[in-house]
Write a structure and sequence with these properties.
The chain is an alpha+beta fold. The chain has helices at residues 19-32, 49-58; strands at residues 3-7, 37-43, 61-70, 73-80.
């Protein structure tokens, strides 16, 4: 099983560089490289949980698990749909 981990916590939130922009640039290549699982760590204030779920579903991933690792920080584990 191929697993990819993304940490979007330390990307500066500006007009040209925001965690959602970084994610949108990375997800197409991650999906095409055949990763079975993606583990994404992000700040809920940057990307709401429901928005992340919707975004992942666009690339044929479903959220298997959501963990709150600290105040406002989420670890989301998504798997590729068969």
């Amino acid at each position: 099983m191929k697993v990819k981990e993304l940490d979007l916590r330390y990307i500066p939130a500006s007009c040209t560089s925001h965690p959602i922009i970084k994610l949108s640039n990375l997800l197409p290549s991650i999906a095409s490289e055949g990763f079975d699982e993606i583990r994404i760590i992000f700040r809920e204030e940057d990307i709401p949980e429901n928005a992340m779920k919707l975004f992942l579903s666009k690339y044929n991933y479903f959220v298997e698990e959501v963990k709150r690792i600290s105040e406002g920080i989420i670890l989301m584990i998504a798997r590729k749909r068969d």
